Structure prediction request, 348 residues.
Amino acid sequence: MSRAWAWVQLAIAWLPMWGLFTAVIMIVHGNAIGDAAIGSARMIGPGAALGVVIYKLLARLPWPHPFRLRFVAIHVLGAVGYATVWYALICLIDSVVIGHFTLMIGPGFPMFLFTGIWLYFIVAGVTYANLAAQRTAQMQAHAARMQLDTLRAQLHPHFLFNALHAVVQLIPMDPRGATRAAEQLAAALRTMLEERRDLISLAEEWAFVERYLAIECIRFGERLEVHVQIDESARAALLPSFALQTLVENAVRHGAAPRVEPTRVTISAALAGAMLTIKVADNGTGADLGSVEHGTGTGLRRLRERLRWLYGDRARLLVASEPGGGFVAELAVPHGVDDSADSAQRHE
Prediction:
């Protein structure tokens, strides 16, 4: 929150009090609304300024658990001190306006003391409510961060197992191909271990997916055909890290692996209004959508959970398939642009 906006909120919070004091002055003393508004401003202004001081001080005095009487005593003394200083400031301002020292008699010091104590406890209540809301938001953000880290970490062994399986299968049949695949795997793993961002540019994600596909193309040879159509305007758009890799890996694992015939995997990405839309389709054996949606250990399920944590209901992942009819996955996320995607790596 910017400092200017914080001051605006503070002013808005004290406006009802200013209106109340203005109405009281008009009713009790019969002043015109202009004079009453000026008079109440001379009272509310010091109270609001002291309220800022109280807010900063109470931020260092957390609500105790368990509750202690010492905490109550501190606030009672603070309320009396606030009321006394508030009254003194009102008298000082009136003395400056009139031109000589004067005491604001009005309804009497006891009434000012009571009103000042009342204002103090309003400020204290708002302060502790705000601090509690901030702590709740921080805890929720921390929980979301832990959940996202867990989901992202779960993708790593899933990918590693499949990639190592591909390398192992190549060793007896194509030792040189296995060597090249191992080198590609090492580069991919380096990226996975170093990547800590939740959102990366599509260009960066595609660079990682290309390494993965290089491994699988060595493994499958002519049995795997990859067609790519990524709009240039979409390359700087942001998406969850390893999201495209999850979709492509799903297509290769469930589309190409079970087949002897060549399998075509088509990857497309484009901007559509405020959304980045990515589509990965294969003409493989297809799958039962019930088992895909509710199966354990699927990368699609983890991806859906990450989308929910990152975007709420603003993102979607749709899948379509039928036995023998291939598999289609379409991901749509809110369009954001990484301005540094073409020049440098951006880390959190």
Remarks:
- The two ends are 19 Å apart (CA to CA).
